[in-house]
Design a protein that fits this description.
Layout lengths: L12 H14 L4 E5 L6 H4 L18 E6 L2 E6 L3 H8 L1 E3 L3 E5 L9
């Protein structure tokens, strides 16, 4: 099952996503939460202690291959999704794995 949460800023997307991820993990599902926000705060909602925030590994840009296909560009992972999660994910409470798509800028997050 894949679930994406999108909407207007300040509408509670991060709170809803983190709560849903933790509830699904507690119910025994294998959960990978991906934070693609420019101001990533999903780690906090997932219950990760703030002193671990500096250790969050961002997924490196080099994992994407740009392929030319039918006059357009298609993106493809250079590693399997499981490898990406294993190498760049961080374990959060309730056994949710978090992938951070970018690092917060100084003074945010």
């Amino acid at each position: 099952m894949k679930i994406a949460v999108a909407g207007k800023g300040g509408s509670g997307k991060t709170s809803l996503s983190g709560t849903l991820a933790r509830l699904m993990a507690r119910a025994g599902r294998n959960v990978v939460a991906i934070d693609g926000d420019l101001n990533p705060n999903l780690a906090l909602t997932l219950g990760l202690k703030q002193d671990r925030f500096d250790d969050l590994p961002a997924v490196p840009h080099g994992l994407l291959e740009h392929l030319q296909l039918n006059g357009g560009t298609t993106l493809k992972l250079s590693k399997s999704f499981d490898e990406v999660v294993s190498l760049h994910g961080i374990e959060c409470p309730d056994h949710v794995r978090l992938l951070l798509m970018g690092q917060p800028h100084a003074g945010t997050g």
